[in-house]
Amino acid sequence: MIVKKRGKTLEMMRLDALLRRLPESHYKKGTVQNDYKKKISELRGEREVDYPLGFLDDKDYLILHNVRLADVNGYFQIDTLILTEKYILILEVKNWYGTILFGENGQVTRVGDDQKEEGFANPIPQVKTQLHRLQKWIRSRGMPAIPIKFFVVISYPSTIIKSTSPNNIIPNEVIHNSQLFFQIEELSSKLPPSGLRMNQLINLSEQITRCHVPPTENILGKYNLSMDDLIKGVVCPSCMGIPMIRAKRKWFCNKCNHSSVNAHLIALNDYKLLIGDIITNRDSRSFLLIESSHVAKRLLKGANFKAIGSTSKRRYELTLNLNNQSTSL
User: Fold this and answer.
1) Per-residue pLDDT for 152 more than 80?
2) CB 10 within 8 A of CB 274
3) Cβ(122)–Cβ(128) below 8 Å
4) For 103, which of 107, 122, 158, 268 could close a Cys bridge (C-beta 3.0–4.6 Å)?
């Protein structure tokens, strides 16, 4: 059973919003586009494991994707976490292509189609660190000890995994995506019961979900940008033209003649993702490119955003509306 679904991360949503708001001629546009494409590629790679995981029995396996937990050392992130009555399984998904070489001292090198070599950190120590931190995290919540195993899953079957010499062994935990279901089945058949029951695992999965902390990031600061770099206005959900014009309680697009009642929600999502959670009437007018404070007030109240403060200094707490996200690529 999937307890925590995989989806667009906040980082990807922020990049998506930034792409909508940067002019085509902006000198940082290409950098942001490349970073967004990398994140999309990573998500596609992670989704490759969804197919073999779909063969697992719902009643025996609890699956959580994209988990980020806090401990005394900060935060640690796990691509996919699987809870069973016998063990917990960490999946570290690698979106590697070409030929992957395991060399001396754990060195990992990727050789691409152009024969260029690129070095990567060995994933085994990385996952072992995740395992250690997860063990301590679970113990701190009074849960009984349970074995924790892991696999490093190469998401694409066309990727070749080799060692540079007979003396350099490919770790057994490094597997292709196509092997994943069978490796999980084999692991489940070998390990004895841990003593945990499914109701305890459900409780643990709920704790993990509640404690998941999405990464916070000042994306404008990351790219050394400011509000002045952004295109303001409401984006047309049909043709992505900007800005739409407000008239007769609707938004109208001069490019494609599309009209919308709630297109401003995408713009307010962009504001939250790029600038912050709190917006004033004046800020909303500036960002949505509307003149009337009464219209701005009606739009903010109509979206059911929480109002903070008195009338003269009222601010609104923006909530992320995932149903009004568009994609720039």
Assistant:
1) yes
2) no
3) no
4) 107
pLDDT at 104: 80
Biggest CA-to-CA distance, the chain = 75
Task: Sort strands 278-280 and 315-317 into parallel, antiparallel or unpaired.
Answer: antiparallel
The per-residue pLDDT for 328 is 39
CATH number, domain with residue 250? 1.10.10
Listed residue (165, 187, 193, 192) closest to 175, CA to CA:
187
Q: Is residue 225 part of a domain?
A: no
Q: 63 and 15 in one domain?
A: yes
Q: Are residues 205 and 244 in the same domain?
A: no
The whole-number pLDDT of residue 174 equals 94
Q: Is 217 part of a structural domain of the chain?
A: no
Question: Is 249 found in the same domain as 186?
Answer: no
Answer yes or no: do 247 and 161 share one domain: no
Between CA 12 and CA 219 the distance in angstroms is 11
C-alpha dihedral (248, 254, 258, 262), degrees to nearest 10: -50
The reply to whether 289 falls in a domain is: yes
Q: Is the distance from CB of 325 to CB of 17 less than 8 angstroms?
A: no
- Do 174 and 283 belong together in one domain? no
pLDDT in tens, 98-129: 899 988 877 898 887 777 888 888 899 999 99
Residue 257 lies in a domain: yes
What is the β-pairing status of strands 88-94 and 2-4? unpaired
Distance (Å, rounded) from C-alpha 136 to C-alpha 126?
Answer: 16
Long-range contacts of 282-286 (CB under 8 A, 24+ apart): 284/316, 286/232
Reported in sequence order, the residue ranges of the chain that DSSP labels E, i.e. its strands, are: 2-4, 62-71, 74-83, 88-94, 99-102, 108-111, 117-120, 148-154, 160-163, 174-176, 245-247, 250-252, 259-260, 278-280, 306-308, 315-317
Of 1-15, 133-147, 272-286, the poorest mean pLDDT is in 1-15
Q: In which domain, by residue range, is 286 found?
A: 232-324
Residues 206 and 280 in one domain: no
- Please state the rounded mean pLDDT for residues 117-143: 92
